[in-house]
Amino acid sequence: MPPIPKNAVGARFTGWGRALPPKVLTNHDLEAMVETSDQWIRERTGIERRHVGGTTAGLSIQSGRLALAMANVDPLDIDALVLATTTPDRTVPATSATVQLGLGLKCGAFDVNAACSGFVYATVVAHGLIAMGSRKVLLIGTDTLSRVTDWDDRNTAVLFADGSGAAVLEATDGPGQLLAWDLDSDGSAEELLFCDIGGTIFMEGREVFRRAVRIMVDSAEKSMAVAGVGADDIALIVPHQANIRIISAACDRLGIPMARAAVCISETGNTSSASIPLALFDAADGGRVSPGDLVLLVGFGAGMTAASAVIRWGN
Ligand code: UT7
Asked: Is the C-beta atom of 248 inside 6 A of ligand 1?
């Protein structure tokens, strides 16, 4: 992707929030549903438990409200709502319409579907809106994959779950947080991972795994090259939480130690569009990022999309 124009208006995250449905499904619960074991799931995926339930709009309203409160922003001052989701509550209208009403926003609202890369796609789009004159954008990544999971299919039932992460992005007079970004997709891989309307998710797990590592590394390297930074400069990598072995292989190839990776998959499973904001804001709330730190977001997903962004963490 081209470098960000030097005179583009910059933006920063000024507040964030996370939401997980209260119902927890453990690996032991899954043992009673499909032929699997707690040990297999832990060792092959890194997942121990996941949260399931709720709607995409409901979870988005929860995380969005927390983000607005933390940023101390009046809902009426939000200029646009961007909701990344691959599991809208309805085909029409966009789920962002329900969220807009629920949060009391008076602004344009739209959904972005880039599967598990969704939050990074939406982050880039939100920065673009700020460059075009918006001052405050609410950005949410939410998925309720439990509604499109075949609970008799052990290839997918052990992985997918529900959650939401939100951020308020505000224009800044000084330098913005986004140093570089990359968005990719490869429609020829559509049949490896899809969900028909009204259906459940089909996935060729082993092939998705193989490609995931490659496309995450490619995308991250492109963003780092445009930002002019190397692996040693990255204080925190926030990868899509699909499988701990994918995260570990990607970090290994990028030369970033796992100690510098934000990982919450053991508690959340794969929440698609929510996975990167859940991991990022979990790390931020845990004090793992300091002002000035470079943070690398990198995701991949159905489509097959890949996306990355290098961000300089603000105050
Ligand atoms: O968000 C993006 C989308 N998804 C992903 O990123 C997922 C990418 N893929 C993966 O994470 C992994 O491929 C899986 C977790 C889906 C599967 O792990 P794997 O290490 O690739 O397993 P495998 O398909 O190579 O199967 C290994 C063995 C097989 O048994 P045999 O043939 O060795 O006897 C499978 O039948 O594990 C068996 N197996 C299971 N056993 C217990 C497959 N799934 C399960 C299971 N529980 N849930």
From this structure: no
